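#lab-general

N.A. 3:47 PM
ok so I finally got the sequence cleaned up, no stray characters, all 190 residues accounted for. can someone with queue access submit it? mine expired

B.Y. 3:52 PM
send it over

N.A. 3:53 PM
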Amino acid sequence: MENKRFDPQKLALLNNPVRLKDFPPEFIVKQTAMKNPSVIIDLGAGTGFFSIPFAERYKKCKIYACDISDIMIDWIKENRSGYNNIIPMKIEDSNIPLGNDIADLLFMVNLHHELDNPEETLKECHRLLKSSGKIAISDWKKVKTEYGPPIELRYDPNDVKEQLLATGFKKININTAFPNNFLIIAEKQS
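B.Y. 4:20 PM
back already:
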């Protein structure tokens, strides 16, 4: 469903520093508590805005910045070339062309509400994660905010928790401390 997806022509909004105040990427880094990850996947990476804190902290880690938009992938290639460990990757909805059990962490920021079939995407995320790998999902709270997607597209974090449970994730933690976003971290267990 195209009308619920972010318009790539508005990509400048993704690099707005206000986003750092609303939802600091370092918070995800700290909450996931990764020691020495070798592979991280940024699903729905957009401009790679949230890939950067991981790239700076884990310099030897490969960070796959995955997006369905050619415009976004091209933008990352042109503007994030200073980060040798960020690898732009064009994907299809719930089909990410990487091997099984390769990622220590997979995260998505403000993407869940755009997914046509969230459970299919979460199954794909589960496939990609190593045993004890973590998924971090941050999205818009289901409340009226100054900006963001229409409220009817947003999810209650407990609904996302149910989707995670249905696709095999465990140890699910929900954080709602931020004004516009929730953050859910879950783990793949074998």
